[in-house]
Amino acid sequence: MLSSDAFGPGPAGDRCPGCHRPLPADARFCAACGTARADLRRPTTAGRKIVTVLFCDLVGSTALSGTLDPEALRGVTLRYFDAMRAAIEEHGGTVEKFVGDAVMAVFGVPSVHEDDARRAVAAALGMRAALRALNAELDAELGPRLQVRIGVNTGRVVTGSDASARQALVSGEVVNVAARLEQHAGPGEVLLGPDTVRAAGAGVRSVEVGPLRLKGVAREVLAHRLLGLDRGDPGDTRPDPPFVGRRPELALLDAELGKAAERREGRLLVLGGEPGQGKTRLLRHWLERAGGVRFGAGRCRPPGEQAGLQPLADAVASLLERSPGHPHPPGLDVLARGLLADGTPTPSPEDTCAALAEVLGALAGPAPVVLVIDDAHRAAALLLELLERVVAALAGAPVLVVVAGRPELLDVRPAGAHRVSTLGGLPDRDAEELARALAGEVPAHLLERAGGNPLHLEQLLAAPADAAGDGVPLSLQTLIGARLDALDPAERRAVDLACVLGREFAAEELAALADDGADLSAALRRLGRHRLVVADGAAFRFASGVVQEVAYECLSKQGRAERHERAAALRSVRAGGPAAVGGHLERAHRFRAELGLPGEHTEELRRAAAAALAEAGARAAARTDPGWAVDLLTRATGLLRPGEDGRLPAARRLGEALLALGRIEPGRALLAEVAAGADDPVEAAHARLSLAAVGQQQAPAPVARQTLPVFERAGDQLGQARACLRLAQQEQVDGRHAAATRLLARALRHAERSDGEQERASALGAIGVSLWRGPLPAAAAVARCRGLLAAQGPGRRAVLVTLNCPLAVLLALGDDGAGAAACLAEAGRHAERLGYAEAAAFLPLFGATVAALAGRSREALDLLGQASTAATELGGGALLSSALLDTARLRLDLGEPAPARAALAALEEERARTGGRLSFAALAERDGLRARLAADRGDRDGALELARGAVAEAARTDSPILQGLAAADLSRTAALLGLDRERALAADAARSRFAAKGHGPGVRLADSLADCHHPPREAIS
Fold this sequence. Notes:
The protein is an alpha/beta fold. The protein is elongated and about 125 Å long.
């Protein structure tokens, strides 16, 4: 139980940390505001925090020195300084220094308060009032009148380590802006920086000035001229967000009220929760839902703004207003002379307690009443003690007293509480509902950062209008910064260490990170009670991502550098791989560099960070995560200097990853740099081969033949896989699938030995294409494809993409439309997660083939348009040529010769642009289509020559599908020319090839060509 004898005499010179009034000798609590003496003059630690800086300067002091005797002037100046100091300290500020006639004060040193900006604004007004009083005295004594101008600015600064030193407490641009605002202010004016106006909250009356160009400040500043400050809590006017969830908490309140009514007794419920969890909103919603329950509510204001028992007086008064016509017990007269008059326990705490119990009992009657004391973490000790005594005295009276406040309330709560509950964050589903109500959408990253705290979520959604440079709204920075500054040294140390590790951490990690190996488990448990961290099994995590971000921003850069360097050596971080290690080393180097700390140690950190990030980037690229690879490798190459070991390999891998994401030009530029400048022939060979794949320098196959021996001599398995892949793809383009399959088997072996996931997927996908286009019957090819998929397992997303695409076409050859659609859908799902740009071209290309086989020609044409656009953006090449040939065939099959000719013309333009030759397969398809176009316009000789030549070109391949298509084109050409015998022979040849493959749609087309002069229009691929 808290004792009322906490208010006694104390040592001279000590001031209350809450309201800054003088403290008597032995007082443990401030009589004015109830703040505990334990917080007195808590030393500030060096770091970065949100503070408000105030500059005040005399106007016309030079002229004053010419009218007053030097001794008289000195006396006036000292009185002026005393008056300004008193006004500053009365509102919780710290005078950093006097310079000439200027005063510099800081609000937030030694400890940050969430209302520091408001205190500074109030202090500025108090300084003007103090100056008016001083001028009245000077008028009567010496005659001069003093005038001042004041500038106030809020933001993040670097703080010193000792508030008593009065030297260099804060530094940074925030200080410079405050000084420049003061210089721009007119006599008697107060100019506020924009962040001060936002942080001070409701009640600040001002008008905009500017924007101003301030000396030494790069950006213009929109200042505000202060007009006045309304009293009250700035949080009062913040509109409530929509109420969602909280069903267990509402049930708890219902249950406690029910017990008070059933047992006809006084009950005390303590409800704690971190700022922003919605304690006030919960109680308001509950009381509104309860309907006829009479209640009274009072709120504890910031220290120094009200008498210690005023919140209780406000609650009782509002309850009386809601209880007209009730009896007037004698105890009400006692309260009217003391508690209700001025918030004091007159004539004594005992008499006040007895009178309260009598009045509340009379008001309750048969129906229960509720008394709410909100923000009770600010409550004076006497208030909490009095509530406990009153509830104990309420025998036979159904009264529920709810005391709500922040987590620190739980440490000083009344011992007689019947129930203590902690309000946590909203569950994910409720947080999503709130986000939708506030913003109409659910940004996942903001939900994670908010950690279920409604206020954090609301203000993050409102950013960037109220956001500081680090992405956390200023209001949240000050709110959380104040909570952090209120921690004891062990708790703060635990937070400062943990925030370097991220959102989640373990107690043993903190011990390893601390330079003295301190066990901080007890501090972590206390932080759990404060709801700053949450136990998660054997580990811990910050209650929200915003808490971790603000704690990290409060660290000095020197401290961050040292802790990140130590973190890189932690066993848990090393277990996370080179990306985790490199991230810590990178930040350690960056902060040392920003602080201007050159030297070998900083250079060692840079090189070590680059090596770790480059290794992580290489792993990400090998494991088909190009987006992450680009991030890691960009950071690695940014740390490495031209000519340093490791830069060219990192640059080459970065170029390849950029190409994979479709960022062709920057990828080409990096690869060209490596190809031209690499002393290592293997690196140069890799770069040349990758450049060839996007149409730079030579075609892929010749480059592959040149580089394969380089890779073989070096034992470079990945290089051999890539070279064999390029050679195999050329064989496929030429329609020689047996030769391609042999090369692909070799490429697959090399890819597996090098752990090259992308090369493995490419090799398997190419094998699938040869199973589709090659001589193996479709049914056996389907079984082979499925066997390859099963052998690779379900976790290889890239393989699931590359193999499911040809498998879909093979199933479509066998008229399994549902199976084909399922394969394409699975490939699409995995491709979307991988992020490879090439998928935007090949997925619709395979989809078009499946649609064409099913007779959905218009759908196929739409997909081919998508494939052509994507392939063009990727630099053209084989994918674009395939899309154009398929488009020409579909158009011609639909009886649209003009667009068919346009597609073939585009094919010729692409061939001329790349300077390459058309393969046997492409020649066979192109000339077969050209033959049909020639026959359509009556060119008998030209048509037959082209059609027969296409059949001859197709015969040079081992693709029954290509041979069947060439024969079908000859049959159609002959039909247009009236050559029935040649039509029938070619149709029989086409049927034979399609039947050998198990190509159902092809067999039906060949049958129709054999039976009639004008076959149905059906697209066959």
